[in-house]
Specification:
The chain is an alpha+beta fold and 303 residues long. The protein has 2 domains: 36-135, PAS domain (Beta-Lactamase), CATH 3.30.450.20; 139-302, Beta-Lactamase. It has 10 helices and 11 strands. The strands form 2 sheets. The protein has a 6-stranded antiparallel β-sheet with strand order 8-7-6-11-10-9, sandwiched between helices. A hairpin with a 3-residue loop joins β10 (250-256) and β11 (260-266). α6 runs antiparallel to α7 (162-175), α6 (137-157) runs parallel beside α10 (274-302) and α7 (162-175) packs antiparallel against α10 (274-302).
Length: 303
């Protein structure tokens, strides 16, 4: 019997050989890419922190950089740093696991969402924290679109003026989509000027007073209004007009139906992606429907 078991083990080893270290690392890297997660560990005795390349990519950290726990905490927004530090301290002192969703800081002003998971394990006498990080930004943005439909639609139903619609759109762009540098321009009655109706405080601080645009000008906002096609400008140095945008280096533009344009900017180049454009376009559609409804109501009352 022992000979048979030995033979079976030999057969299994030959038919299913264990991967080499290089193969294992390659397999691990593939799993991380496919699942979109990064992994990390922290030895509480040596205070050695290890992050996989994928974990560093998620946080937009140089692959060659060696990190400490303080470095990790500093990656998150100021309001989340204390929460993360407390969870790490509790895990180290009491071996308590945790899951926490936080916002990641970056050079730009559009936040990214990260989920940080930690599972403490005893290894002999040493406590080691094992964990994963996952970029939740796309999932959060899908949730944001649903939230836009629900919350903004409710607010716009009660709007009774274009000014009120513009204020609701700017607030939703800032507080739901994270497009903090937002401007709303609506066309005047003569349809020859896109007039700045609303701009967020952050936008005014970074770019100054936002100008009105003549329909005869060649600007991204005017072009979006005339064509009803949204645009992303990755680098305003390549934007062919003479308007000063202050600190804003990239931007997106979406139509508010035939009524105007919503634009947003960021302080870094290439800040916006297609999903940002889709979400902002949805907001523009809701605003267009509200302004059209207000116009119908006014005309019906005049009759």
């Amino acid at each position: 019997m022992d000979d048979m078991l030995s033979q079976d083990n030999n057969d299994m080893t030959q038919s299913n050989p264990l991967p080499s270290d290089d193969q294992y690392l390659e397999l691990l890297a593939s799993v991380q890419r496919l699942t979109g997660i990064g992994i990390w560990s922290y030895n509480t005795s040596t205070t050695e922190l290890w992050w996989s390349n994928q974990a560093k990519r998620i946080h937009e950290i140089d692959i060659e950089r060696t990190l400490t726990l303080s470095d990790v905490v500093d990656q998150y927004t100021e309001q989340d740093q204390d929460r993360v530090a407390e969870r790490f301290s509790d895990a180290i002192e009491n071996a308590n696991p945790f899951d926490i969703d936080v916002e990641l800081t970056g050079e730009g002003t559009t936040p990214r969402s990260i989920r940080l998971h930690c599972e403490p394990k005893r290894n002999d006498e040493t406590l080691v924290l094992y964990g994963v990080v996952r970029d939740l930004t796309d999932m959060k943005r899908r949730e944001q679109r649903i939230e836009i439909l629900r919350r903004t639609s409710q607010q716009l139903r009660g709007a009774s003026s274009k000014q009120e619609v513009a204020e609701i759109l700017a607030n939703a762009a800032k507080n739901i989509l994270g497009l903090v540098n937002t401007t709303v321009r609506l066309v005047n009655d003569s349809r020859n000027v896109l007039r700045t109706v609303e701009a967020t405080e952050e936008c005014l601080e970074r770019a100054g007073d936002r100008p009105n645009y003549s329909i005869d000008e060649e600007t991204p906002a005017v072009r979006t209004y005339l064509t009803s096609e949204p645009e992303i400008h990755s680098d305003h140095q390549n934007t062919a007009d003479d308007h000063d945008r202050g600190e804003l280096q990239s931007g997106l533009y979406v139509p508010i139906g035939s009524h105007g344009v919503l634009s947003a900017g960021d302080v870094v180049v290439d800040a916006f992606k297609e999903h940002d454009l889709e979400a902002a376009s949805l907001l523009g559609q809701l605003g267009a429907e509200a302004i059209t409804r207000i116009g119908w109501v006014k005309r019906s009352r005049a009759i």
